[in-house]
Amino acid sequence: MLKNFAILVTLGFCYALAEGGPPAIPHRIHIQARAHPKSSFLRRRALSPIDVPLSDFFLGTDLQWFGNITVGTPPQILSVIFDTGSPFLEITSDLCTRCPQKKFNTSASSTFVDGNTTGIFSFATGGGVDPVIDNDYSLTVHTAADTIGLVNGFSAPDIEILLIINQTTKFDIDPYDGIQGLGASAQGLFAALISQSLPGNMYLTPKAVGNAELILGGIDSTKFTGEPIFGDLPPAETELPPSVWLLNSPGISVNGHTTGFLNTSRQIIFDSGTSNVVFPTNTTEAIYALISPDIKPFPAEPGAYGMACDRIAYLPATLDFTFTSQNGTAFNLTIPTVELNVGPFASNTSHCQTLINALEGVEGVLGGSLLKHYYTIYDIGAKRIGFAPAKLLSAQVL
Ligand SMILES: *[C@@H]1O[C@H](CO)[C@@H](O)[C@H](O)[C@H]1NC(C)=O
Ligand SMILES: *[C@@H]1O[C@H](CO)[C@@H](O)[C@H](O)[C@H]1NC(C)=O
Ligand SMILES: *[C@@H]1O[C@H](CO)[C@@H](O)[C@H](O)[C@H]1NC(C)=O
Ligand SMILES: *[C@@H]1O[C@H](CO)[C@@H](O)[C@H](O)[C@H]1NC(C)=O
Ligand SMILES: *[C@@H]1O[C@H](CO)[C@@H](O)[C@H](O)[C@H]1NC(C)=O
Ligand SMILES: *[C@@H]1O[C@H](CO)[C@@H](O)[C@H](O)[C@H]1NC(C)=O
Ligand SMILES: *[C@@H]1O[C@H](CO)[C@@H](O)[C@H](O)[C@H]1NC(C)=O
Ligand SMILES: *[C@@H]1O[C@H](CO)[C@@H](O)[C@H](O)[C@H]1NC(C)=O
Ligand SMILES: *[C@@H]1O[C@H](CO)[C@@H](O)[C@H](O)[C@H]1NC(C)=O
Predict the structure, then answer these.
(1) Alpha carbon nearest to ligand 7 atom 6, residue
(2) Please, where in the chain does CATH 2.40.70.10 lie?
(3) 139 in Cβ contact with 123 (< 8 Å)
(4) pLDDT at 62
(5) Mean pLDDT along residues 207-234
(6) Which Pfam family name is an example for this entry (predicted)?
């Protein structure tokens, strides 16, 4: 998932690699204690909820979020994407001579343990403006373990890490130093947090609600309207990694319309490490067909679609994804028209990319384009995901 969408696609590979150990990622995470919000959704916990302030990235589009964690003893601060689409921690290390990111200095940590296994971690990355789907996103990683923590907060010893020891140049522009998986199987740091009765829940909210934040172990009810609606994760499927947060969706509508193909069941993954939206080519093109025949594949960037920038602003493109709540009633999650235009392609700035990227091998992935509009509750203990409309910053100001 690094770049844009990649993470979920890489999971199969991660699991193959996992013989050597779990992954680790360093990122800078500011943490501060916060008062317990009064909420019936809170689980009993031994520690106070922890806030992790997040910066946003993705070429300024508020579609990816990252924050700080600490690695090693004494703690070194590194920044990571908090990725609900993967389970592992990967961080840039001093073993990577050509990585421009901040690096974890393994020899400066008294608690560092070498895992002695090296492998390649490939990302199928798609979409977003500029990062494209190709074969050129791969990390060479080395297994290790060390103490991982949250700044000013929790830390846990002997957490498995994938040290990045080389990377393809496509990763060089990333402003973060790694990826902290927040997958539903709760490995590594998050397993340690749960064992301390801390998380149970985690929340990522978009900049539009007053800067993104990850909250571990609590819910900030000032950031959303109404009561969250929860959907249950389906029983683990053999063909999918058990770490993904996914819900069955009985259908998709575009501007209030659907088709026989779109009105069928598919499993949709909620991935904070994916910037936009990913569907297989057939679903992607069925959705675009209901928006405009002018949206076409952009050959220079396989999997990406786009149209002339000067006409995109006039297209309505409200996408409703239907899900089933815990009591069996249907609810929609909606991506508004404003997300259709991802921005101009670098290779033709008169041509703008549209939000869905085609990629085979997944039934559907909703990333930043959707998640920024909802306060999203990843409830590990109850195996469910909750959504409530995020309060807009402007509404708070008013
Ligand atoms: C992460 O830590 C760095 C200092 O290492 C700080 O400059 C940055 O603002 C922090 N990021 C966040 C999101 O708190
Ligand atoms: C890494 O840590 C070692 C031991 O503290 C130190 O000698 C070395 O200079 C550090 N490397 C960098 C790049 O800071
Ligand atoms: C890695 O190799 C070193 C040196 O052989 C050994 O001391 C250490 O126990 C190994 N680490 C693991 C996790 O097996
Ligand atoms: C590191 O990755 C770069 C870019 O893919 C490659 O050119 C280089 O050969 C790699 N270095 C090593 C030591 O594998
Ligand atoms: C089912 O849940 C939804 C969403 O939480 C709620 O709006 C609705 O009133 C519930 N319906 C019943 C019959 O409990
Ligand atoms: C979901 O959206 C579709 C299309 O706008 C609409 O027909 C349907 O009634 C909505 N479902 C719910 C539960 O709101
Ligand atoms: C979608 O399919 C369901 C059956 O799964 C059906 O009840 C519903 O009428 C269909 N909706 C549309 C708009 O075709
Ligand atoms: C760039 O995009 C514009 C708008 O879609 C299009 O008219 C033009 O032909 C494109 N230029 C090239 C070189 O493809
Ligand atoms: C859509 O494409 C996927 C492959 O990405 C395939 O598995 C699926 O059967 C296709 N659906 C239809 C209705 O053709």
Answers:
(1) 263
(2) 27-221, 229-396
(3) yes
(4) 63
(5) 84
(6) Asp
Q: 27-221 adopts what CATH topology?
A: Cathepsin D, subunit A; domain 1 (2.40.70)
Pairing relation of β-strands 277-279 and 356-358? parallel
In CATH, the architecture of 229-396 is Beta Barrel (2.40)
Structure tokens belonging to residue 369? 């384009």
Question: Of 282, 360, 362, 365, which is best to mutate to test ligand 9, by the most ligand atoms within 8 angstroms of its C-beta?
Answer: 282
Which candidate, 345, 258, 334, 329, places its Cα nearest to that of 296? 345
For residues 139 and 166, what is the distance between their CA atoms, to the nearest angstrom?
6
Q: pLDDT-based confidence at 219, cuts 50/70/90?
A: confident
- When mean pLDDT is compared across 41-50, 96-105, 189-198, the lowest value belongs to 41-50
Ligand 3 pocket, mutate which of 113, 114, 146 (most atoms under 8 A from CB)? 114
Pick the residue with more confidence: 326 or 313? Answer: 326
Query: Which residue type, as a one-letter code, is found at position 101?
Result: Q
CA–chain centroid gap for 292, Å, is 28
pTM of the complete model: 0.85
| Residue 170: C-alpha distances to residues 79, 134, 386 (Å) | 18, 10, 34
One-letter amino acid identity for 267?
Q
**Which pLDDT tens digit goes with each residue over 169-187?**
877 877 789 888 888 887 8
